From TrEMBL:
GO terms for biological process: potassium ion transport. This is Potassium transporter Trk. It comes from Loigolactobacillus coryniformis subsp. torquens DSM 20004 = KCTC 3535. InterPro entries: NAD(P)-bd_dom_sf, RCK_C, RCK_C_sf, RCK_N, Trk_Ktr_HKT_K-transport. Transmembrane segments: none annotated.
């Protein structure tokens, strides 16, 4: 489905959002106060324009209120970031995603009506730290404070060549295996008879502590 996106602020974060949306054939309006940033995206976005997004009249004339999604990716200038979020909210944008620089900023954004508040530097930093501590956890999603979904690489010979019945993840760890990836081949919702091989990537869901325990067994 084709939707309309406006990305305001074309730093590394906003630029990356524009590129992916454009690759996915979406309509993208890219806005920055800095002409060089805008020029870099001229061939990527549907439209790329130089404007100060803090100017309400400019956003009105661009009919920002008619966009399905607006992403406020202004970073260091927190005042501009907040003001722009407020203006696009008032102009009636139904879905607003704003980048926060810190927790206080995030609280303000939630209050003024940002639908999604994201912390790319904080979250990516956490991800890198987790990966350094648990290199066999390739990917994870915290479902809540206690439950995690994770992709774990099988590197321990104790697991290799055994079926899910033999490995007994449920009883031993409290984990449910939802997929086994073997090279390019993915078994979704595997059966008990499916066998795990060296370097397979298994997707599991269960208590966070159990995921960590499984990772420890791989070392
Ligand atoms: P990133 O981490 O994404 O690279 P950053 O967090 O360092 O970016 P900035 O570089 O401060 O954040 O801001 C991102 C972009 O937002 C910059 O290209 C900047 O020119 C643009 N920007 C700042 N203020 C405005 C504004 N009022 N209107 C439009 N664009 C703006
Ligand atoms: P972030 O996006 O993570 O907030 P940034 O991409 O905007 O950061 P900077 O603020 O330029 O990057 O740099 C990050 C940190 O690195 C800063 O705290 C800065 O003081 C520190 N730093 C920069 N140069 C050096 C240096 N030569 N030695 C040690 N620390 C440095
Ligand atoms: Ca930054």
């Amino acid at each position: 489905m084709k939707q309309n996106f406006a990305v305001i602020g074309l730093g590394r974060f906003g630029t990356s959002i524009c590129r992916v949306l454009a690759t996915e054939q979406q309509e993208v309006l890219a806005i920055d106060i800095n002409e060089d940033r805008v020029n870099d995206l001229a061939d990527v976005a549907t439209e790329a324009i130089v404007a100060d997004a803090q100017d309400e009249e400019t956003l009105r004339s661009l009919e920002i209120g008619k966009f399905d999604h607006v992403i406020v990716a202004i970073g260091k200038n927190i005042q501009a970031n907040i003001l722009v979020t407020l203006i696009v909210k008032e102009l009636g944008v139904p879905d607003i995603t704003t980048k926060a620089e810190n927790d206080t900023h995030a609280r303000v954004l939630a209050r003024i009506g940002a639908d999604q508040v994201v912390h790319p530097e904080r979250d990516m930093g956490a991800r890198v730290a987790h990966h350094l501590l648990s290199p066999n956890i390739l990917n994870y999603l915290a479902i809540n404070d206690d439950v995690t979904m994770a992709e774990v690489k099988i590197t321990s010979s104790a697991f290799v060549g055994k079926s899910l019945i033999e490995l007994n993840f449920h009883q031993r760890f409290g984990l449910t295996v939802i997929a086994i990836q073997h090279g390019d081949n993915v078994i979704v919702s595997p059966a008990g008879s499916d066998v795990v091989q060296l370097n397979d990537e298994i997707s599991v869901v269960g208590p966070t502590q159990a995921v960590e325990e499984l990772n420890d067994r791989m070392n």
